[in-house]
Amino acid sequence: MNLTDISPAIALTPLDGRYHNTTAPLVEYLSEPALNRERMHVEVEWMILLANGFEGNGYEPLIEGVEPFTAEEQAFLRAIPEEFGAEGIAAHAKHEAVTHHDVKAVEYYIDDQFAKATASMPHINDRLKTLVHFACTSEDINNLSTALCVKQAMEQVWTPAFKEIIDHLAAKADEYRDMPLLSLTHGQPATPTTLGKELAVYVYRLTRQLRHIESQEYLGKINGATGTFGAHLAACPEVDWIAVSREFVENRMGLTWNPLTTQIESHDWQAELYGTVSHANRIMHNLCVDVWMYISRGVFAQVPVKGATGSSTMPHKVNPIRFENAEANFELSCSLLDTLSATLVESRWQRDLTDSTTQRNIGSALGYSQLALYNLMGGLKSIHPNAIVIERELDENWEVLGEPIQTAMRACELKGLPGMDKPYEKVKELMRGHEIDQAQVEAFIDAQSFDEETAARLKALTPASYTGVASKLVDFAR
């Protein structure tokens, strides 16, 4: 049997197949029907503005011969996108099969809805079909619809999941702010830190990206075929179309008005947003790798899930698959987001259609990131510090105290104490390439001509207590 013959159709990508339950919330905003619904929303709001005017023109119709819509009629128009469902999707598809133009199909679909108007709404009739898409090029509708779709997807789906990651990390950073941890720089034992401080580093990095995302502008335009309002003025020269455009984009659509465009809105805001999301992805990818290696090292222990299989042949294993899944999906998301950022900012002269196909992958780009966020959150909730391993690592690496000892020797030399020359070399001879213990460290300190206070301070240090102000630094994470 051919898989293509099975109904309902089998999903080609894992986002709509294997991982559908995780990525489904984005369908509400970034699917093709969601885009068409927003197109209808833009079209009917444009009609209402043309018929009813705005504060700047005294709420008078903008076009001669058009009577203002009543409240009932406005509600009828707004119900067209609000009630766009399975039946409407099929009806729109029939129009597009004939027109081979998705926005024109939206226009015809709206025309069809006028036939459903009741006798109590005399202005919703065939005569007003002319008002649909008045003075608009398809990109007037598309750029606003896309901006609204992306804005809602970010605000309602992606950003809340991103914040959940940050909040979880912030809570754990605070919980483990005093838990000492052996650092590894270049994979080698180094100055100890605290687990909380290391988690706080990620909180700080991710919070900066969150601020960029929350302050992101979403630009829009409605100014005609090449951004000149040419058709608008030819039809209605007495109207201040610049003011109308600004009113519509800012106050009716809730977007940032772009006054200067070609046929398309230039997509710079999209490049900025996708660049920021990609950057956030990469920070979280770094987190996944770090946690994976902490698990491998034993610093983090995983909570086994009852009934789950870690390995098909090795029953003892609990694999860090959540972090591996997140790592891979962040990479896929970045590849798409980077492509979107690079290509959407270019257009041949006043218009080419490459952006149309490209923008249809926004859902995939954010979908892979959403899937990664889900798995990262699940992974973070399934781990906890392994205090036994952490303490053992610290106790096995007394050589990390070479740094404070040689630095204290330098300070004493600067104060004029004798016998403090070549501190780095002396400590290196004792500690590099050797396994040493507390007794050897204390003996070395006793052999130097430290003042009593400095000697006591150094001898009080252990790998577990040599964490500087790491605990206090957690407070700077947010």
Automatic annotation (TrEMBL):
Quote the Pfam families the UniProt record gives.
ASL_C, Lyase_1
Residues in coiled coil: none
Q: Provide this UniProt record's keywords sorted from A to Z.
A: Lyase, Purine biosynthesis
Domain Fumarate lyase N-terminal positions: 17-326
Recorded metabolic or biological pathway in which this protein acts = Purine metabolism; IMP biosynthesis via de novo pathway; 5-amino-1-(5-phospho-D-ribosyl)imidazole-4-carboxamide from 5-amino-1-(5-phospho-D-ribosyl)imidazole-4-carboxylate: step 2/2; Purine metabolism; AMP biosynthesis via de novo pathway; AMP from IMP: step 2/2
Q: Which SUPFAM superfamilies has this protein been placed in?
A: L-aspartase-like (SSF48557)
Recorded GO MF terms: N6-(1,2-dicarboxyethyl)AMP AMP-lyase (fumarate-forming) activity
What are the Adenylosuccinate lyase PurB C-terminal domain coordinates in residue numbering? 347-467
Record-level GO BP terms? IMP biosynthetic process
General function of this protein? Catalyzes two reactions in de novo purine nucleotide biosynthesis. Catalyzes the breakdown of 5-aminoimidazole- (N-succinylocarboxamide) ribotide (SAICAR or 2-[5-amino-1-(5-phospho-beta-D-ribosyl)imidazole-4-carboxamido]succinate) to 5-aminoimidazole-4-carboxamide ribotide (AICAR or 5-amino-1-(5-phospho-beta-D-ribosyl)imidazole-4-carboxamide) and fumarate, and of adenylosuccinate (ADS or N(6)-(1,2-dicarboxyethyl)-AMP) to adenosine monophosphate (AMP) and fumarate.
- Annotated protein name in UniProt: Adenylosuccinate lyase
